Amino acid sequence: MVTPVPTGKAFGEGTMLQQANWIEVTGKMDLSLFEKRVTTTYSIYYIVKFQMHLVGILPRVKPDVWKELRGGEFSISNSITGGNVEFGMFEEETDWWKGSMVLAGIKINPKTP
């Protein structure tokens, strides 16, 4: 079960995972939204925080602090004329129930050398 929550961040409203036995966050963005003058590599980050009453996820994480969890990277060159980039965050297989994680959104930045 998820609940909309204010984030106090640029995203406005996020989603709090109250309790679930499987986590899956997916998205897709049109490549026309990205700069394509030169080949550029981008990094994807999930902006999350864990509440004080955390259940089943990273028990040694400091609660109520926003974290950027790196989700991977992709490259775009000027030869690409269309399409989408798809991304996802999935849990490792476990029977544990999870909860009290707030997802504010994702951030995609050009990777710095």
Describe this structure in words.
The protein is mainly β and 113 residues long. The protein has one domain (2-110). The chain has no helices and seven strands. The protein has a five-stranded antiparallel β-sheet with strand order 1-2-7-4-5, with no helix packed on it. Strands 3-6 form a two-stranded antiparallel ribbon. A hairpin with a 6-residue loop joins strand 1 and strand 2. The chain is elongated, with a radius of gyration of 16 Å. The mean pLDDT is 80. InterPro entries: PP2-like, PP2-like/Lectin.
Question: Could you spell the SSE succession in H and E letters?
Answer: EEEEEEE
Could you give the order of strands across the largest sheet?
1-2-7-4-5
- How many structural domains are formed by the residues? 1
User: Given the C-alpha coordinates, what overall shape results?
Assistant: elongated
Please estimate the helix content.
Answer: under 10%
Radius of gyration: 16 Å
CA distance, first residue to last residue: 40 Å
Continuous helix count: 0
Beta-strand fraction estimate: over 45%
Alpha-beta classification:
mainly beta
Secondary structure: number of strands: 7
Unreliable stretches (pLDDT < 50, length at least 5) are none
* Average pLDDT reading: 80
Q: Main sheet, how many strands, which sense, barrel?
A: 5 strands, antiparallel
Pfam family, one: PP2
GO molecular function: carbohydrate binding
InterPro entries: PP2-like, PP2-like/Lectin
